[in-house]
Amino acid sequence: MPLEFAPSSDQALPIWPVAKDAGIPPEAAAGDWPAACGFTGKAGEICLLPAADGGLSGALFGLGDPARARRERFAFARAATSLPKGDWHLMDLPDGFNAEEAALGWLLGQYRFTRYKGSPPKETRLTCPENVDADRILAIAAGEFLTRDLINTPASDMGPKQLEAAARKLANEIGASVEVTTGDALLKSNLPMIHAVGRAAEQAPRLIDIRLGESGPMLTLVGKGVCFDTGGLDIKPPASMGLMKKDMGGAATVLGLLKMLAGTGAAQGLRLRVLIPAVENSIAGNAFRPGDVLGSRKGLSVEVNNTDAEGRLVLADALTLGAEENPDLMISMATLTGAARVALGPDIPPFYCDDDATAQAISAASMTTGDPLWRMPFWEPYETMIEPAIADLDNAPSGGMAGSITAALFLRRFAEGAGRYVHMDIYGWQPTAAPGRPRGGVGQGARAILAALPDLLK
């Protein structure tokens, strides 16, 4: 089923949104029917309204308690999955509810990952609400769908080579250029840590470098592209390895964001660069080892105290490369630490930024877009935790405390040169189905960045 809104038509049936325990809109002409059906307006509740000819005249949709609206994002996605097949249009929303979020929620509710089983959703379409930019909402949903598809695809079909192919396909769609450095060429190009992490895999490691735009402020996006993570020689237990197809969630998210930027027109007047170190952290005789000391593009030596902390290694070389052009803003996105999940759970990725104005813009946008983020500190006193005895840096400080912060501090060492640097420690996975977010891969942070961009690069 194509991602689309229904054309405006008198044939589209009305949906009346009703807050919990509020009166039924008189124009719904519902009489005693909703009460007889037990409809109270609780979140996600639907009451189909009969027409005199035995068909449907419309539907009531429960919005729940307006005071608790923030407890459920994209509640209107429930309508997309629950209403009968056909075209629908949304009547006026009460105060406290947002038509743009409702429209996006409807589209996100249409998402299905059907590559291996299942079928597209039924043809239930919404006409875009008045005063909502349909093209913008469609572009945002398309970017999110790309991110979800990439994360949901298992490593058997989404290794470094296939991730490169997906990046090239997107670049071709939006008119961007792509350069890819692969295998031993990484060493010749002074990207040694990307090579070290990925050299044991069947598919060669690579750096994907996408550019769009030739003038204006420069935004560089760096996404972790570990297509599968066994943990390397510090192998993960089965319970921890099961979801590691999502360890390229940072790469999937920056590609989804790039699609949003191009599709909404936000890329105009910008110089965009996307860097994705794409590797598989595998086990073989040539795998990098605990205790190895690796050289980096920046010239800093890194002691490997855990081969399962590989994401920061590949990001480090990519960040160094990106910072060499002195972008106005550089953002890294990575499924980096379990510590972030312990601290904030799966829904709220922490982000790190030294610039207060930048951080405030991102925080504000995260709330208005239903794309939550939470600022965490680059805590300077913890710098000593990433400084081992025999090298400049330690990739995995012992003790386990402040794991997300120390990982962010590690990355910041390699981002020097960028005008401003933001790091997002995302999860990239929806563990329990929610409105507009089925269980599986999910984008985090991209919509917040898109919304904040006018303030970030003005």
UniProtKB/TrEMBL annotation:
Keywords: Aminopeptidase, Hydrolase, Manganese, Protease. InterPro entries: Leucine_aapep/pepB (IPR011356), Macro_dom-like (IPR043472), Peptidase_M17_C (IPR000819), Peptidase_M17_N_1 (IPR048816). It comes from the Bacteria. Residues 306-313 form the Cytosol aminopeptidase domain. GO terms for cellular component: cytoplasm. The keyword Hydrolase applies. The keyword Hydrolase applies. One of its GO terms (molecular function) is metalloaminopeptidase activity. GO terms for biological process: proteolysis. Gene3D superfamilies: Leucine Aminopeptidase, subunit E, domain 1, Zn peptidases. Belongs to the peptidase M17 family. This is Leucyl aminopeptidase family protein. It comes from Paracoccus methylarcula.
